[in-house]
Design goal:
4 copies of one chain form a homotetramer. Chain A is α+β, with helices and mostly antiparallel strands. Helix content of chain A is 18%, strand content 38%. In chain A, the strands form 4 sheets. A 4-stranded antiparallel beta sheet of chain A has the order 3-6-1-14, with no helix packed on it. A 4-stranded antiparallel beta sheet of chain A has the order 4-5-2-13, with no helix packed on it. Chain A has a 4-stranded antiparallel beta sheet with strand order 11-10-9-12, with helices on one face. Chain A is globular. Chains A and D meet through strand 4 and helix 1 of A and strand 4 and helix 1 of D.
């Protein structure tokens, strides 16, 4: 299907600042292709596209003091989002590629090393594979309340496992932590989601089963119609939409994802 | 029933030290009566019996440098431990006495303020009363593994809720935290237990339902035949068996609880 | 000096609710005397004055569904607040009364058991007594930034010790935790402060030195001209101004403390 | 200088297990060259050398049930360890390569996002560069006690920042967290150290200053004569010497690092 994606934001910066921007999906991914895209920013001293260690496109700019804004729009050809197959296989560790293995390790917001017994108690007796990962996501959806303003940038899976409240980012971190505790590679994805209400940047999960990455999103019981990844990483620390080195205020931010006729 | 209780310990102290000892049950309690007791310590410069804020008998001594040991033995007439009645009633807050109200508040090792949603999700829909408290204890027993050496003196309910492993102290703290999150007064009890294997000091819980304190012990599915409280408090911080102000080693410690013929 | 104290608040309650209110200072304390006071509440089904375990006056009411408000005003004769004397003596544990001893133990928001080495490193070599406590308060003031909106109701001394930001409550908790780690009894006090800008309920600390409780307030380098305690406890968990058992919103809250002519 | 390095370990495995072994330094690094090396393991079903995401050599094996042991020995030509230069420059973020940028982000055991204000208070006013990083290491050495058995595999910089005790791994994590909070890329290195007493695997830090990685080791005030890296990563989670997927006991483990004549 064809999607029109648009993200804009305006900041008030106390000083000229370096800025890292991650709002541009990779030009082509496993389940999407960018047909056309345009990024405009208020005049900046430099604007360079780079790749981080995980392969994500990252825009490095120098943003001016005062008002700074960007507008990104793209047309993206995206496959419909697919249900995680019940029988997608968990692989033994030595069959995992390096690129997946790193996602079995604990990270800042996914303390899988603390959640080992909890994961075993809750999911250890389920048959391995896609069905087990779906059970993890269902557990998280059933045990965690979705509510804005209850968690913050330092909230981690350890917190969410007991406080039982959060937003998409927290849901994703808890799913990831449980999966890793079960030795299933799981990574954080920031991206665009069709059908999110209210529209916003979205955080969800990909697990590596049967030699491919599969989407899983614990914030909904239905399938999101389409998910377009922007950046992947060990958790949200690796996938910040915008990083600024100067004190600033967010004046305005908006995201739009629409299906358009082909 | 009649119990013979005996507790001994030997310490190696680097210096003369203040010592607070709490191994002597109150002479009479709701469900026990001390028939005779004897405490001997290696020569100490002073030895005074006092009461802490919670009413617990506390022995204040000055222990000598080097070897220091105590031996406490008692004969105690104890009622058989009773099952927490299914229908014992949860009281509204303004009907609780001050002495029970303090036990609805969070404390060092029972962070009920963090566990509110978890308690509501797991137990909020159960009918209030004794049956609900028993469900809490059963949940803790079913979800937490009992294992020595996995927790320490700073482990709290928050940790146990996610790490899912611990000893009697940790089981008690988690039960207490859940109960308080449900507005049920719950306090920590250190005491002697008949039938504990291996024998040791025991930590369990009392909840205030229907105008009385009731025992609840999440470490066992059966009823402990008898429980004799030594000290109660908001959590284990208030009920340390021995507090020493000088660096020291525990050389030996033993507890014995036997049923004797009347 | 003579103070006019006034506290008002309005809540919107989803349902009739129990309410515990602690805004009334004890009629007479070590350094103040209530000359006259008046509490008015919107019609309530019951309103009873009780004492909690720590001796604090606590008003138990049943608040109506919908708008609920109270207004408390008092005239208080208060001694000027006194500097904590440099030479006020730390007492050995067995000379502390039960009423002070409980305040050497860790509590929910004052994890002194975790901060022992930090307290020893920073303050262990200072001469014991009032001067050391003042050094603790100065350290906290010098190392923690005062800023609204950076901490919340579950923030504890452990958090503040590393995040280094908070409000009066957090400053108090950290001072308390350090003092207890040094075996100095320290308790949390909620109260009225003259000269607070903007006016609000205040949280500060009392330490027990030389057989008396002394005020210490880490949020200011100068001496607050007068402090009138409302409630004392192990930490803020024991001294909540208002406790409601029903979901609600705070519509308005205001505090006023003025010096008046005698 | 020429070093003879030897590492051995024996495990008792409850079952056949995958095993990842990281004891082999890269054949050539910025400051060392492996002259010869030999790895022997008890018969294993497979033994393959791979590279993880960070470029570390990782041995993947299938270890047999029961006794399993390995012996690694190597001769390594190593440059003498060099003092971190006082004037090595901190680079602005957009001049950092992707390979260094990832090491400015928080990780499982280095919660730099929590330590921002603490890092600013303690080190924010120092002139940037190598001297500042050395001040960080000196602070950690001066404020944290080195002591075995006080920390565990889940201990993180957040814990060490307040508990102030730990081993080389904890010292490294805290240095890393502070550096990242100052926007200085810092990574964890597991390796062999000449002169460690008792001999063991060592954990230390590398910071990226002036376009190169520099060693810094907070556990000693003197310079370690030589450090040979085995693996680098965001923290110790990425650099485990041995990972086993089956319950097991460590029967024996030994490390030896000696200087030999050329």
């Amino acid at each position: 299907m064809l999607l029109a994606v648009r993200a804009t934001a305006t900041y008030e910066l106390q000083d000229e600042s370096f800025a890292f921007l991650m709002v541009e999906p990779p030009l082509s991914g496993a389940r999407h292709r960018v047909v056309e895209e345009r990024l405009t920013t208020t005049p900046t001293r430099s604007c360079e596209l780079r790749r981080d260690l995980y392969g994500n496109p990252q825009r490095h700019l120098i943003a001016p003091k005062g008002r700074f804004s960007f507008e990104f729009s793209a047309t993206v050809e995206a496959d419909p989002n697919a249900e995680l197959p019940e029988h997608a296989a968990e692989l033994p560790p030595h069959e995992l590629p390096a690129e997946a293995l790193v996602y079995t390790l604990p990270s800042r917001y996914c303390e899988s090393d603390l959640l080992g017994r909890m994961a075993q108690t809750e999911f250890g007796r389920l048959p391995p594979g896609g069905g087990r990962v779906r059970a993890v996501a269902e557990w998280v959806r059933g045990h965690v309340e979705y509510r804005y303003g209850t968690s913050g940038p330092t909230t981690s899976a350890r917190d969410t496992a007991i406080q039982r409240v959060g937003v998409c980012r927290d849901f994703a971190h808890l799913v990831i932590a449980f999966c890793r505790a079960l030795d299933i590679p799981a990574r954080y994805v920031s991206g665009y989601a069709l059908g999110l209400e209210p529209p916003d940047f979205h955080g969800f999960v990909q697990v590596y089963l049967g030699e491919a990455w599969h989407n899983i999103d614990a914030t909904t019981g239905c399938l999101r119609p389409a998910l377009v990844p922007i950046a992947v990483g060990r958790d949200a620390a690796d996938a910040a939409m915008m990083t600024l080195w100067t004190p600033h205020e967010v004046v305005e931010q908006a995201v739009e994802v629409r299906r358009v006729a082909e």
